[in-house]
């Protein structure tokens, strides 16, 4: 449905099956302009119509009814328009399937479309109320976003609405194998455009995590040529660990098309330090000055002549 709304065709470019049961457990959905046609030896070959478009979506089977998105690329290298959507074969099949469904006749295409759309629609809402899985193993809800019932679905619906009106809006939602929402990242078109001009130094603000606020917000903030902060992306982090920080940083890196800042400013979080060193090994990692100054009373407050030391330190800064 997203391809139909935006105006580009969709095709299954690759599938993986379990050999014994012949069950599809992974699939790659690509834009109909992905790749290029094989060269033909005909005297008058048809002209090339594909553009090698990178837009794609990779999903894998979590259990018998739910699919999980593991990789996504939204950018197209060609123009898309809802006005030409009726010319794509994938959307013609959807229209045909809808007509046949009204006649109460089972249609393969309808089931195929529903199969791939369940990846988010069937996802659980944040941490589950059930403390055990079907296998009897406990669910560690401390590593999921603490959301109320319906919050995750409402958030996903909001992202979809924004994406329809703003194609350059970017978002990723991280689900575990149980379907619980762990992390969320998003950035609007203005943030992505601003990164092209103000990406020299970026501060990763984890104040909400450090203060244990109800909303575990993490922000990527740059500085424009007027000395004003510029928002370059946001996210919700489900757990303060290197693994979760790495997912967030990789999502931001994907959003910015692989470009990273020359200087990364953070607080002294050990988990964040590890994540930055692994995701941005070539960047210069520094501690945020404001965080260092906040630690001055705690670290130096007991020293003799503290007031004089503090005054000299502030002058130096």
From TrEMBL:
Alphabetically ordered keywords of this record: Metal-binding, Nucleus, Zinc, Zinc-finger
Any GO MF annotation of the entry: zinc ion binding
Compartments where located: Nucleus
Gene Ontology CC annotations of this record: nucleus
Entries under Pfam families matching the protein: FAR1, MULE
Domain FAR1 stretches: 2-81
Origin superkingdom: Eukaryota
Main localization, broad class: nucleus
Domain spans labelled MULE transposase: 202-293
GO annotation (BP), single: regulation of DNA-templated transcription
PANTHER family recorded: PROTEIN FAR1-RELATED SEQUENCE, PROTEIN FAR1-RELATED SEQUENCE 10-RELATED
Function of the molecule: Putative transcription activator involved in regulating light control of development.
Family in the record: Belongs to the FHY3/FAR1 family.
Protein name per UniProt: Protein FAR1-RELATED SEQUENCE
High-level lineage: Eukaryota, Viridiplantae, Streptophyta, Embryophyta, Tracheophyta
């Amino acid at each position: 449905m997203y391809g139909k709304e935006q105006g580009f065709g969709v095709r299954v470019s690759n599938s993986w099956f379990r050999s014994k049961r012949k069950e599809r457990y992974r699939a790659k959905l690509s834009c109909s302009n992905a790749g290029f046609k094989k060269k033909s030896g005909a005297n008058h070959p048809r002209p090339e119509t594909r553009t090698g478009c990178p837009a794609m979506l990779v999903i894998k089977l979590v259990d018998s009814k739910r699919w999980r998105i593991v990789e996504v690329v939204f950018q197209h290298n060609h123009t898309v328009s809802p006005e030409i959507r009726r010319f794509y074969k994938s959307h013609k099949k959807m229209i045909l399937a809808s007509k046949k469904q009204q006649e109460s006749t089972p249609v393969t295409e309808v089931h195929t479309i529903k199969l791939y759309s369940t990846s988010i629609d069937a996802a659980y809402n944040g941490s589950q109320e059930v403390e055990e899985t079907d296998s009897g193993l406990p669910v560690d809800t401390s590593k999921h976003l603490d959301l109320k019932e319906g919050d995750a679905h409402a958030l996903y619906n909001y992202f979809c609405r924004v994406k329809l009106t703003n194609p350059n809006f970017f978002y990723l939602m991280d689900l575990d194998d149980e379907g619980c929402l762990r992390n969320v990242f998003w950035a609007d078109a203005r943030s992505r455009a601003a990164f092209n001009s103000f990406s020299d130094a970026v501060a990763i603000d984890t104040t909400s995590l450090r203060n244990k606020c109800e909303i575990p917000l993490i922000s990527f903030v740059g500085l424009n040529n007027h000395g004003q902060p510029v928002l370059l992306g946001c996210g919700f982090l489900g757990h303060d660990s290197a693994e979760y920080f790495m997912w967030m940083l990789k999502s931001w890196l994907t959003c910015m098309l692989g470009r990273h800042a020359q200087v990364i400013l953070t607080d002294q979080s050990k988990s964040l330090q590890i994540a930055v060193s692994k995701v941005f090994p070539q960047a210069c990692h520094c501690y945020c000055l404001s965080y260092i100054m906040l630690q001055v009373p705690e670290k130096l407050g007991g020293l003799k002549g503290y007031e004089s030391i503090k005054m000299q330190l502030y002058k130096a800064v």
